[in-house]
Amino acid sequence: MLWDDEAIYVLASRDVRLARETGALATLPAALNALASVLVLTGETARATELTAEEQAITQVTGGPPLPNARLTLASWRGQQTETSELYEAMVKEATGRGEDATIGLAQVALATLYNGLGNYDEALAAATPPVEYDELTFSSIALPELIEAAVRSGQPEHAATAMELLGSRARASGTQWALGLAARSRALPGSGT
């Protein structure tokens, strides 16, 4: 929500380091999953892939539940439509059963990322809209740039303008380079309402 990429990287890295140092196999998979997700956002997809493979190996050996978050994000960023769709369906089904709206929001953002990357802007807009409308704390802000791009490229500038106002406000409040960069990139899209 705050777009503090430095803090999230430090915290995720620390979680992995502490879990490794203490031999906490119960918490290491979740820590690896979180760090891999952060690494996808920073473009370190090879390292993210290594961490997701390690997380999967540990959960298989220990019988823990699979943690598809990072794999879904990675697949969507790579444009892997089949894998993204399969992971999305499984995540949403399980999250719906547990009442985990934040997990559903993450899945929707990943789907919007995939569809924007593939040029399927109407589908990207449909995927990005619920997290923004629901305004869930964890993923609503990261859905905004996806919604803006999808709206602009699908010829719906009114959706883009509304989302751009919210993104601009949150980016200024955050003040991080990541937030301000996302706002500038979104403003640069023709018809984004600026």
Give the topology, please.
Blueprint: H1 5-22, H2 28-41, H3 45-62, H4 69-77, H5 81-98, H6 101-118, H7 121-134, H8 140-153, H9 157-174, H10 177-188
Helix pairs in contact: 1-2, 2-3, 2-4, 4-5, 4-6, 5-6, 6-7, 6-8, 7-8, 8-9, 9-10
Which properties best describe this structure?
single chain, about 190 residues, mainly alpha, Serine Threonine Protein Phosphatase 5, Tetratricopeptide repeat, 2 domains, about 0% strand
What does this structure look like?
By secondary structure, this protein is an all-alpha fold. It has 2 domains: 1-67; 72-194, Alpha Horseshoe (Serine Threonine Protein Phosphatase 5, Tetratricopeptide repeat), CATH 1.25.40. Helix content is 79%, strand content 0%. It has helices at residues 5-22, 28-41, 45-62, 69-77, 81-98, 101-118, 121-134, 140-153, 157-174, 177-188.
- Regions with little confidence, pLDDT below 50 for 5+ residues: none
Strand content: under 5%
SSE order: HHHHHHHHHH
Helix content: over 70%
**What is the third-level CATH name, the topology of the largest domain?**
Serine Threonine Protein Phosphatase 5, Tetratricopeptide repeat
Query: What number is the mean pLDDT?
Result: 93
Oligomer: single chain
What distance lies between the first and last C-alpha atoms, to the nearest angstrom? 22 Å
Total domain modules: 2
Number of helices: 10
In brief, what are we looking at here?
The chain has ten helices and no strands. By secondary structure, the protein is mainly α.
